[in-house]
Design a protein that fits this description.
Layout: E1 21-22, H1 32-38, H2 48-65, E2 71-75, H3 79-90, E3 96-101, H4 105-115, E4 119-124, H5 133-142, E5 148-152, E6 154-155, E7 160-161, H6 164-173, E8 177-181, H7 193-196, E9 200-202, E10 216-220, H8 222-229, H9 242-249, H10 262-278, H11 280-300, E11 316-320, H12 327-338, E12 340-341, E13 343-344, E14 353-357, H13 365-381, H14 390-401
Parallel strand pairs: 1-12, 3-4, 3-5, 5-8, 8-9
Antiparallel strand pairs: 2-10, 6-7, 9-10, 11-14, 13-14
Helix pairs in contact: 1-10, 2-10, 5-6, 11-13, 11-14, 12-13
Pfam families: Aminotran_5
Keywords: Aminotransferase, Pyridoxal phosphate, Transferase
Protein name: Alanine-glyoxylate aminotransferase apoenzyme
């Protein structure tokens, strides 16, 4: 064979993606400031100027998480690796871990516990319902030797928000460390790491931070870092070992660990600067306001939410597909005709639920109105008896009743 035999069968040229409105479960729309930041000149990952920016990222992430934890940084990988970093560092063989399971992502925690030699004790709740604090309390009483409580704060598969503050209080009473998944909640819903006493927390860059996928903000308490330093068994991952990362992210003098994704970190830095400029409380309120307007529009179409109102995630609206409506056909038309992406149901909810994301830059008035109008047209064409324009009117009324301060 010659080199020519390996040449692609067709001419491949530069890829130009279409412009979409991303209103699924993630990623969200990326702001032009963040995209522009990625295009800046690449620096070496040990360049002194880049080190200065790393320190700023740590400071900005502490603001986003509301923590003073020194070990707060960004993992050079998506949120799933942030999750694994927490488990691989905090579990030693035989450790018992209580894992709350009320959607797709709890089982992934169970997998992590088992793969790292731990023993998982599962607390199950129905999909669409929050983690039941009483069940957690009862389980920890039954398993006084449990070392860690792990749960998902904002379950992306269902759109439900669990009471992280109460769950962490329960864990502390039982001398348990906590691992908390905030991939969908960071910057969209209140998270107070220090006030709630969270030990290990991870998130993702592509949701309410509106940064491209591929980075995972994390934060570890001194309790965790002290434990990892004194582990009896070496951490079962070289790349994710906090002891090694301390030399790269933990001080102003950097020791080579890996080649950090410099341009991706420029993007994260810019997204965090934008969050700081907006203010956390304003960001939480913006997500809530747009959620209320979207909900008002859905109600005019008779679309029902999966989650009880007091437990709903503003940034991830999970609704039941109306009877007689073709799930895939609706999503295909929205994408083809309006360049609008919404999310399908996962697991138990596949074919039963749509998931509408209002995260970060995607959480804005024009997206809500575009989505409601497009959905109203498509559902009307499919036979639903809807009054055209009613959904948008309801959204405008909601905005008028809930002005931003």
């Amino acid at each position: 064979m010659t080199i020519e035999d390996f040449r692609p069968s067709k001419k491949i040229t530069t890829f130009y993606p279409p412009q979409r409105i991303l209103m699924g479960p993630g990623p969200s729309d990326t702001h032009h400031r963040v995209l522009s930041a990625m295009a800046r000149p690449t620096l070496g990952h040990l360049d002194p100027v880049f080190v200065i920016m790393m320190e700023e990222i740590k400071e900005l992430l502490r603001y986003a998480f509301l923590t003073k934890n020194k070990m707060t940084f960004s993992v050079s990988a998506p949120g799933s690796v942030g999750m694994e970093m927490c488990f691989v560092n905090m579990i030693e063989p035989g450790d018992k871990v209580v894992v709350c399971r009320n959607g797709v992502f709890g089982p992934r925690m169970v997998e992590n516990v088992e793969r790292h030699g731990g023993v998982a004790v599962v607390v199950d709740d129905k999909w669409g319902e929050p983690v039941d604090p009483q069940k957690v309390e009862d389980t920890l009483k039954q398993h006084p030797d449990a070392k860690i409580l792990a749960f998902v704060h904002a379950e992306t598969s269902t759109g439900v928000l669990s009471d992280a503050k109460t769950l962490c209080e329960i864990a502390r009473r039982h001398d348990c460390m906590t691992i908390v998944d905030t991939v969908t909640s960071l910057a969209g819903s209140p998270i107070k790491v220090d006030e709630w006493g969270i030990d290990a927390i991870y998130s993702g860059s592509q949701k309410c931070l509106s940064c491209p996928p591929g980075l995972s903000p994390v934060s570890f308490s001194e309790r965790v870092t002290d434990f990892v330093k004194k582990r009896k068994v070496k951490v079962h991952s070289w790349f994710m070992d906090i002891n090694l990362l301390l030399g790269y992210w933990g001080s102003s003098t950097r020791t080579y660990h890996h080649t950090a994704p410099t341009n991706a970190l420029y993007a994260l830095h810019e997204s965090l600067v934008m969050l700081s400029e907006e203010g956390l409380e304003h960001s939480w309120a913006r997500h809530k306001r747009n959620h209320e307007a979207l909900k008002a529009g859905f109600e005019t179409m008779g679309i029902q939410y999966v989650v009880d109102e007091k437990y709903r995630l503003p940034q991830l609206n999970s609704v039941f597909i109306p009877d007689g409506i073709d799930d895939k056909a609706v999503r295909a038309r929205l994408l083809d005709e309006y360049s609008l992406e919404i999310g399908a149901g996962l697991g138990d909810f596949a074919g039963k639920v749509w998931r509408f994301g209002l995260m970060g830059t995607s959480s804005r008035v024009e997206n809500v109105l575009t989505c409601l109008n497009a959905l109203e047209v498509v559902l009307s064409d499919m036979g639903m008896n809807l009054k055209r324009g009613a959904a948008e009117t309801a959204a405008h009324q909601s905005y008028a009743a809930n002005p931003m301060s």
